[in-house]
Amino acid sequence: MKEILQKIEEAEYVLVGLGQAFDMENLLEANPEYGKVWEQLQENNAPWLLPYVEERFRIQYLNKMEEEIRQGLNNLASVLEKKSYFVVSSSTSPIPAQIPWKKMLLKKERYVSPCGDFRKKQCLDGCEEGITEVTETDRENLRHCYEELRAGKFLAPNLGKCPKCGKNMILNNVYAAKYDEKGYLENWITYQTWLQNTLNHKLVLLEIGEGNRFPSIIKNPFQRIALFQQKADLYCIDGEQNPIAWLLSLC
Ligand SMILES: [Zn+2]
Question: How far is the CA of 83 from the centre of ligand 1 (A)?
């Protein structure tokens, strides 16, 4: 911990990767109710509801840990306050997006979550015109769908129709069969531009709770950067070193 904080202090840039530990899927999978709901989603070709369903389960069963994650990530934001940093998340939990990460010039965000979650919706068929924000009415429909799921019934939530082809709208995340990646593209471009500027500068890479679910987003590129950039140091906080406890101990 001390060594990492020292390295961050000396670094010009800090790149943070937040992984599947923030979804707490391993804890959710221990809950038989969660297993039943997941099965229903698969049977009904609606795995894109998973990020929403997981958040409902976390609120119900793992609320204390959710608050710890929020606190821990707030601690991290404070530690990084004076640095040029960027946060990439492969988690589908909405919490990392809710942390007040500081903004860049022109109010550009320092955060990207390429897997999506349930803040945006898209056309089932991935039409370009489809991506919009999930509305309060959509949220009510999602809540209703979740209640039905818990009662053992599947009822696809009404999220409106695609303005182009008229097909149903679904949640914009990696579990959609035709995932529309434009949902995160703007922030991804900001990230790539930021990353280019780190070349030949002191860079610290922090991989926190990454796991092995989507290695192409964080694990593999971070390792490549650490290998090819002489001034880059990579630290993995995972496994035995509990990522949430580590974040909580930052302040
Ligand atoms: Zn469409």
Answer: 42
Q: State in Å: Cα 133 to ligand 1 middle.
A: 15
pLDDT > 90 fraction of the chain, expressed in percent and rounded:
95
pLDDT tens digits, 184-239: 999 999 999 999 999 999 999 999 999 989 999 999 999 999 999 999 999 999 97
CA-wise closest residue to 47 among 150, 178, 143: 178
CATH class of 1-24+64-114+181-251: alpha beta
- Give the Å distance between the CA of 49 and the centre of ligand 1: 18
Q: Is the pTM of this model over 0.85?
A: yes
Distance 50 CA to ligand 1 centre (A): 21
Domain-wise residue ranges, the chain: 1-24+64-114+181-251, 25-61+116-180
**The pLDDT value given to residue 129:** 84
CA–centroid distance, 178 to ligand 1, in Å, is 11
CB atoms within 10 A of CB 176: 20
Give the 3-state secondary structure of 131-164: CEECCHHHHHHHHHHHHHHHCCCCCCCCCCECCC
